[in-house]
Structures
1.
Amino acid sequence: MLASAFWQHPLVETAGYFSVVVLCLVVSMVLFEVVTKYKNWEEIRKGNVAVALATGGKILGVCNVFRYSIERHTSLIEMLGWGLYGFSLLIFAYFLFEFLTPLIKVDEEIAKDNRSVGFISCTISVGLSFVIGASIS
């Protein structure tokens, strides 16, 4: 009974959700590093604003999806499952963006610091995260 009360304390619960989401964010950034043709953090270190915009949009998008998942689910497992599902949809949206813009090689333009493409990539990630989050049930 006492152990159960400990895990249900708001401070402990918040720390648990925070820890899990940070871990998921790290994993998602590694996956995005794998699917992009450029090295995100190396380009950001060099001052590539387009990569920073695209990466920032991905971070905000992933965090927003998990925010909705935390808000709507009472168990850590449910929150994690729906959050990961939402993240999978964001990855799909990334590939869809590349596919639907055949005249623009999104990864190449972002790697060349085309800030317009980086901004659109950011906006797509953030915008779709709201749609994904709202649909999480």
2.
Amino acid sequence: MPPNGEITRIVVADDHPVVTLGIRALLNERSGMRVVGEASNGRELLALLASEPCDLLITDFSMPYEEGSGDGLPLLKRLRREHPRLPIIVLTMVHNAALTRGMLAAEVNGLVAKVAMMKELQLAIGAVMNGRTYICESMREHVLDWSPAERSEHAADPAVLSQREAEVVRLYAQGLSVTQIAEQLHRSVKTVSQQKNDAMRKLGITSNTQLFEYARTYGLL
């Protein structure tokens, strides 16, 4: 956190201009803060951070990144790798336990649901700039039962899936049916179906749409 009396320099990244304007409006209500740069995709954000010193990053979770590299977690991991001490607050519309835990395992400092941005972003900034982790109210249920051992496991392997389960998820997200996957992998339909169900249970996912979102975010597609 900057010394008393100094301005907190903030970089904002989101591919929706209305969200960026909303963040600026919120920050204007708080003295001692200044937006020093904006980015609308991952490439712009990485270039901006390489040239513009800042004290805090507020970034969207899902926005365009490099072709073939996905967005979301791959970008967060790269940001943390290149800027290990930079406080990062993530704004997101994602709402499932696996991705919430994946973002925390990527060592972000704050998580705020976009629907709660007006209510909770300033709370998150205050917590993060004082060295605390902030998780918005609607996402806290995702980590209430997360033990330190599980946190370590996610940090090492965010997918928490076996190789065979990840393979099934990847093919299913590509549009193959369970029967087609079974034929391609030379497994029984029953086995593939069980591996898909086991993967969804481990990830806290309850719909095929969420499964596709998970596969895309974790680079399984």
3.
Amino acid sequence: MKKIALIGSGGSGKSTLARRLGEKLNIEVYHLDALFWKPNWTPTSKEEQRKVQNELVKKEEWIIDGNYNGTMDIRLNAVDTIIFVDISRVICIYRVFKRMIQYRGKSRPDMAEGNNERLDFDFLKWVWDYPKTKKPIILKKLEQLPNDKKVIILTSPREVQLFLDKVNNEW
């Protein structure tokens, strides 16, 4: 595992897993939310997103955390390992609320400075709808990948922890 993409719903634990995996493997982690949201929740253009990701994937090692379906193929074509954190939406919603309370009035570690945590109905709806709207698209993309790409699907917090526990022993 040298080039790793983490994908999954908001609140699934992608960013935390990316950080912990980066520490264990000594690989730099890139959080797409931190790269693509300018202060005051100003988004970057798709063109800039493509440019940044095309540069990132040229590096020898990386862990990239984030969805961004419109540019996901850039990462999927370059990875050796994809980790899909497929946690239930109830847990994801709980974690989103917990995160909002924990970081209220300040930026999360995986978010650009100036983007303070907030309660956003559209985001909550996106998280709730993710299993029906986004997950099927992602699973289809994963099925179409060449066999040389390792796909890991983690479906519970316990599976995430077991995976992390095995990382030092197997990789």
4.
Amino acid sequence: MVSAGAPGPVLALLAHPDDAELWAGATLALHARHATVTIAVPCRDVERDAEAREGAAVLGA
């Protein structure tokens, strides 16, 4: 049975650094308002990894 309460914690495993914002941003941000959200992506390069960290921070993850 699914609870009607607030969203719970999430571990999002994504293939590319910008996938969190592009494909799941609203859902992750909603969950982050109520619980811990962790986003994991493979390392790419210094620039894209930094962008992924910045995007996660905007989502509250």
